[in-house]
Design goal:
Blueprint (H helix, E strand, L loop, with lengths): L1 H12 L1 H13 L10 H14 L4 E6 L7 E6 L1
Length: 75
């Protein structure tokens, strides 16, 4: 039961940041199809990982000239 308590405590402690991050992602119309605004979505995720102190790089996936796709490499 101590794990459950620890998880609940951690989630409560980070509640506002988690909700803000989720809200930001939901506001970006990146639905697929058609796959619009992927870069904006990837950049928002990158900025959150930066805030958390994680190394991250946004890389464009080849082969999608008309609607570019992006991957995040994070460590």
């Amino acid at each position: 039961m101590e794990y459950r308590h620890a998880l609940t405590t951690a989630l409560e402690h980070h509640r506002e940041e988690t909700l803000a991050f989720a809200s930001d992602l939901i506001r970006i119309p990146s639905e697929n199809p058609p796959g619009n605004r992927y870069r904006e979505c990837a950049e928002r995720i990158r900025s959150e990982l930066d805030r958390l102190g994680l190394s991250c790089q946004v890389v464009e996936a080849p082969g999608f000239a008309d609607l570019p796709r992006f991957n995040l490499l994070a460590f």
